Structure formats: C-alpha cells, structure tokens
Amino acid sequence: EQGVSLELLVIDDGSTDHTEEVLSAYEGREDFRYIKNEQNMGAAGSRNRGVGLAQGTYIAFLDADDFFEKNMLKAAYDRAEETEAEVCVFNADLYDHTEKVYKKCTWAFRKQYFPEKEPFAATDENVRNNIFRMFNGWPWDKLYQREYVRRLGIKYQNLRTTNDMLFVFIALACASRISTVDEVLIHQRVNVRTSLSRTREKSWDCFYIALLAMQKELKDRGLYDTLERAFVNWALNFSLWQLNTMTGSA
Predict the structure, then answer these.
(1) pLDDT tens digit string along 125-178?
(2) DSSP per-residue codes, 113-131
(3) What gap in Å lies between CA 249 and CA 200, rounded to an integer?
(4) CB-CB contact of 122 with 175 (8 Å)
(5) Distance CA 113, CA 192 (A)
(6) What is d(CA 91, CA 163) in angstroms, rounded to the nearest whole number?
(7) Which of the chain's ends, N or C, has fewer CB atoms near its CB within 10 Å?
C-alpha cells in the first residue's frame, strides 16, 4: 500500500520443513528479514526476539497456522493511526481444518462490553470490569504500538502453553488508548491434530503460572485495585475452561 512500508520478520525456531528453502526467494528484500534461532527458543522466545528486532511503528504477531485477509494490516493500521491507539483489536473467526468450514468466534470480540466511544482506556469506569472478557488473551488479532510495548517492557512467558496471555492482557490493562475494527480480518485454524493446545494436560499448570504472573504484574503496576473484579472473573472463567477441556489425569 503506497505510503505504508511493511517490515516482515520470520523467526525460524527449528523448523523441519522447507521453510528456509522457500524463504530464500525473498533474500535481499529491504522489507524482509529471515532469522534462524541457533537453538530452539519456543514460541515465547521467538516472539520476544522479534519484538527486540522490530523497527516499525506497530507490531503484529502472525502464527504459522492462522491465515488472514489481505487488507488486515492496512485496516488495523488505519484505525490505529486515526485513534492514536496503543492497541487496536480486530475481529476474527475460526476455520475448522478437518471439516473445511468457517465458524463464528463468539468469545474474542464481545461487542456487548465495548463502550460507545473509542479510543478507551482499560481503567475507564465502563470498561474496567470487563477488559479481560471483551477480548481474548491471544496476540494475533491485535496491532500494538511498538514504542508502547517497549516502554512497558512486557515479555512473553517461557511456558509450553498459555505463553501469550501475560503479554496480551498486560498490554490491554496498561493501555489508555484502545480501539477496534469490527471486521473479520484473520482466521484461526482449529481442529488441527498437531496443535499444542490439544495436549495441554502435558503442561496442565501453565495456565495457573500465567494467572499468578498476571496478578503480580497488575499489583506491581498499581492496577490491581482497579481491575480486581475483571481479574477474578477472568481467573475463574479461565480455570473452569481449562478444567472442562483438558483430558487425562490432569
């Protein structure tokens, strides 16, 4: 898009397919960087490395198994610029990998909790009790102001699963300017047999470690008193979801 430059960082975290071979075609392009981790860092370490290397005004995180509309970054960028947003959230749906059908995602963009005016702050009186249930704790349906992320000093947790919740929810909790794009711009691929989320019982306590870290961050940043109800409601909801969706001895 004319007037908007794009920087694409690909962090190769021990891929065993033809990633490097495919990406060699883009070598030499100014807007593209291929970074191969010397040792396996996991999703959290790779994302943190990408944030450290990024030079753009905004940062977006794209997971390998999701796919997106061609206007996704432009639509989110335009809205973020228009509202001077620190975080801009857009709508998403689900693509069932096995059934090959699109399905609604009803829990990640809950408009019934949105205030009338945008941008809004997490601590606004009409927002603060619902900030953790109006959006989801995954990173890829959001555009983040790079300087804001750097200023906060937030990192993804080095956990097998739920490594993104702390980063996402602290970014939202600290934000004084959040805006939204009510358009499905990205599709989450679900019902994939190789997905880590399908084997959460192998790391059953990750969600609990993440919740404790989130509570500590909110307290350390002086936000817990204001957002306590939102946090407690989310902790209960998230714990029950984990309990009801895990299998095996966990």
Answers:
(1) 999 999 999 999 999 999 999 999 999 999 999 999 999 999 999 999 999 999
(2) G--SSSSB-TTSTTTTTTH
(3) 11
(4) yes
(5) 31
(6) 21
(7) N
